[in-house]
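Protein data sheet
==================
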Amino acid sequence: APPLFILFLFPILIHTLIPSMPLETTPAPVVQEHSSHFEISFDEEKKNVFHYVWLRDNCLCPKCTQEYSLQKLRSSATIGLSVAPSSFTASSSELQIKWNDDHTSTFTYAWLKENAYDKNATVKRREQVKPTLWQASEISETTHSITYASFMNDDLSFLKALKTYLDYGILFVTEIPSSTESVELIAKRIGPIRETFFGVSWDVKNIPKAHNIAYTSVDLGLHQDLSYYEAVPSVQFLHCITPADHGGESIFVDSYAAAEKLMVDHPKDFENLLRIPMTFQYTNNNHYFKAQKPVLYRNENLYIGVNFSPQNHGPMNVPPEDVLPFYESFKKFSDLVNLPELTFTKKMKGGECAVFDNRRVLHARSSFPTDEPRHLRGAYLGMDEVEDRYNTLGAKHGLKPFRA
C-alpha cells in the first residue's frame, strides 16, 4: 500500500498539474434603451418590455418601499409620465438606473423575470391558477381526501390537500372527532373564520317551521350558499356529525365545467347569462339581503365565475326584452349543471367533512325522513386565507406561490 503522505498529497498534485475546467456562465441579458421603455433580452428568442414609469413606480429602495412593511411610501399617481433614465448600468446580475428625477433604482434580473408583464408571462400566470375542471368520475376518495390527523399535524400532507382544493375546489377530511367544535378547528388550521348572520359556525338540522330551506328534510337542489351577499363566502366546510340512515346524500357539481360547456355549445346563451342580471335575495327572520348580479361573470383570472342559487331568486329587474332570453338561457345552463356525468354523489359518514369552493362547486342534498337525526355543522372561510396559508407555509417547504 502507498504511504499515507502520498494519498494525502495526490489530490493536491492533480489539482496543480491539471488546470481547472472553466465554469459555464450565464450570459448577461441584453438591455436596450428606448424612448419609453427598456427592452431586455433574457434569452435569444424572447424580449421583455419594461416601461420606465413602471420601473420607477416599483423601485424597491428604502426611500420608496418601507423596509419592514414592504409597502410603498408613495402613490403610483406621483410618478411623472416623463420619467426616464439619465444613465443606466447593466451588470451580469442586475440593472441599475439613475433617473432624471435624481433617484436611483436597482433591480435584479431575477426580480424582473419574475414580474415581467409581457403577453407570454401573463398567459403563463393565468395557466398556473387555471382551475382543473372535473366530472364526477374524476373525484376519488384516495386523491381528494385527507385524515384529520394529517390535516392538522402534517404540514406536507396539509399543503398537498390545499393544492388539491385550489385546483379542484373540493376536498374531504376524514376520521374527524365527533364534536361540534371540530369544524372550527379544521377551518382555523387554514385561517380566520368568516362569520355571517348564521354565526361563527352553525348547525344543519331538520327544524320545524325553519326559516331556511337547508334546515328541513326536503330535497335541496344544487345551489351556492349566501348568493344574496355582495361578497359570497368562498370556502365552505360541512362536517357530518350524524348521517341519516336513509337518504340525505350530499351532491356536488363543478359549475365551471358546466359553464364552459355552455360557452362552447351555446355561446348566445352564455353571453345572455353574462349580460342579464338576476335578483338574489333573502328577506326573512329579521334579515334583508338583496343583490343584482348575472349568473355568469369573468372572475379575477378572466375565467368563468358562477352565481347559482335558484332557491334565492327574486323578481328580476331588467328591461322587458331581456326576460324571455334569460329564462331560456338559464334553463339550458341548469340542464347542464344537472347532467349525471357532472354529479358527484356521496353518502357522508359521521366524522367526514366536505371542504369546497362555495363560489364554484354547487352542492345539494337528497331528502330524508323527518324523524332522522341528520346533523351537519358548517363554517365559512375566504379564498384569500387559503392562498395565504398555502403560500406562506409552502415557502417554508420550498414550494412556489400558487399565484406567482
The chain has a mean pLDDT of 91. The two ends are 59 Å apart (CA to CA).
